[in-house]
Amino acid sequence: MKTYDVETEWSAADLALLEDLKRAEALLPEDAPRALLSIRLSVLTDDTTSPVRQELDLRLLAGEKGYRVVGVASDLNVSATKVPPWKRKALGEWLNNRAPEFDALLFWKLDRFIRRMTDLSTMIEWCERYGKNLVSKNDAIDLSTTVGRIMVTLIGGIAEIEAANTSTRVTSLWDYTRTQDAWLVGKPAYGYVTTRINGKPALAIAPDPHKALHWARRMALRGVSARRMVLCIVRSGLMSAGLTPSTLLRRLRNPALMGYRVEENKQGGKRRSRLVLGNDGKPIRVAPPIFTEEEFETLQAALDRRSKNQPARQAGGATQFLGVLICVDCSTNMTVQKTSHKGRDYAYLRCGECKSGGLGAPNPQGVYDVLVSDVLRVLGDFPVQVREYARGAEARAEVKRLEEAIAYYMTELEPGGRYTKTRFTREQAEKTLDKLTDELSAIDPETTQDRWTLVHNGKTFRQTWEAGGMEAMAEDLRRVGVTCEVTRTKIKGVRAPSVHLRLKIPRDVRQRLVIKSDDFAAKL
Questions:
Q1: Average pLDDT value for the chain
Q2: 364-372: long-range contacts at Cβ-Cβ below 8 A with a sequence spacing of 24 or more?
Q3: Residue 147 has what pLDDT?
Q4: Which three-class secondary structure state does DSSP give residue 220?
Q5: What is the tens place of the pLDDT at every residue in 451-469?
Q6: For the CA atoms of the chain, what is the radius of gyration?
Q7: Which of 76, 324, 287 is nearest to 180 (CA)?
Q8: CA–CA separation, 158 and 98 (whole Å)
Q9: Pair (280, 229) in one structural domain
Q10: Distance between CA 277 and CA 285 in Å, rounded?
């Protein structure tokens, strides 16, 4: 296995062939079908076909079929089993946003493109909807023929069986290793690193994480909040700057810190780990403990006590415009933090990086109301436009019919033509020719191309947001990149700060507000 370097893998001979193919491509007629090349590779080994070879082979195939190559979607280190075509970085951009720019999608082999029958079915449906073709270099696949459609289904089934066999082997390996007291494969829990003891793989305690975890435990026993723990540990350099309270708590609650084997607990909607029990019903020890069982239990009790003192979370999330409201001083998200005092709950808008969260704004709803009013004033009257795909095949066929008819009448109106024998036939033919010419001139050349069109759905964003509430507005604002800077200013003699909001709206906000339907939204 090795890393693939796009810049260095091309040899002089490869580059020379590439230039030859491009020169031949330049000789194709202007209306030649357009091809997009899809190149994918999960791991480069001696047994796989390099991306360079794939591209050159596909360019040769395009030349044979008379296609003009308009783009190369190269997705390296991507698994076809785990990532469907529409979610890959390069190919996904073409499928979701650049569909009008190509007519056929070429790939080297079906298993280079897809390995799941459901994904294949989705791609066939997409091709039919948008009038695209799928063509394989090494499989008899061509959606324009009945045989090609049958072949693509059969080969896709074989690819899925191969992928399932691989998955079965991997699952079997994990089922075996999880019952062993030796560390064979996998990523160790935080606090441990892999090593070798007597030539066999094993786990060892990492010094810095060990120190950080014990430091966090001592703070937890004193009732220190997870947020405060994060600040102290990050400043010490024992954990990375990207540490969050939720990540730290997840690490502190992992039973693997006692040296036991664990597995992910997928129930309850939280990322937690649970002990794996051996055949004797006891936990399987795979490493030296970072915490003794007593230390781990007292730590969990301290964390539980701290969590019970926190106000219950709001069902829909405490912060209504998360990701939109931004602190002007530290550029982090404003979030609602709740506290309880003498039986009363209080809510404040605070930020992430300012000292103690900055000056707390005690009326989040009031801030929301001002933001909603500002957004409606600036963007509310914009029409809601939906992007739809328009195919130019019908207009192209009409243009071709008119051009052929015009050429026919022009030929027959020349001396000796069938319409020159009498004045009446000449006049009628000239009238028909004028009519055909007018019809051809009336066709907008843009309509002959596959393209995206914007269709007004009859509503304004004010109407849409009034119906959907603040949640709908917040989702649209995040989608188009609209943010609101929050400035908090201390007022002498007043506990609550003065709050000022400033909307930051991208210049191309009208284009960003266009609603683009996701053809793959319901697909896994």
A1: 83
A2: 364/319, 364/320, 364/336, 366/499, 367/325, 367/486, 367/499, 367/501, 368/320, 368/321, 368/470, 370/499, 370/501, 371/321, 371/324, 371/325, 371/484, 371/501, 372/465, 372/470, 372/473
A3: 63
A4: helix
A5: 999 999 889 999 999 988 8
A6: 32
A7: 287
A8: 30
A9: yes
A10: 10
Cβ(101)–Cβ(71) below 8 Å: yes
Q: Containing domain of residue 410, as a range?
A: 392-449
**Contact present, 284 and 260 (Cβ < 8 Å):** yes
The number of folded domains in the chain is 4
pLDDT, tens digit, for every residue of 45-94? 544 568 888 999 999 999 999 999 999 999 888 888 888 999 999 999 99
CA angle in degrees (0–180, nearest 5) for 102-108-111: 110
Mean pLDDT is lowest, of 21-25, 164-168, 227-231, 248-252, for: 164-168
Torsion from C-alpha of 484, 487, 493, 495, nearest 10 degrees:
50
- Which whole-number Å values give the CA distances from 126 to 122, 134, 199, in the listed order? 6, 11, 53
Is residue 129 in a domain? yes
Do 259 and 162 fall within a single domain?
A: no
Burial of 343 (0-12, 13-18, 19+ CB in 10 A): exposed
Asked if residue 246 and residue 104 are part of one domain, the reply reads no
Q: Which residues make Cβ contacts (< 8 Å) with residue 62, sequence separation at least 6?
A: 25, 35, 37, 68, 69, 106
Model-level pTM? Answer: 0.62
d(CA 134, CA 110): 10
Residue where a domain terminates, one of 308, 342, 372: 308
Domain boundary among 168, 200, 227: 168
Ramachandran sector of residue 124 (left: φ over 0; alpha: ψ -120 to 50; beta: rest)? alpha
Q: Say which CATH number the domain at 236 has.
A: 3.90.1750.20
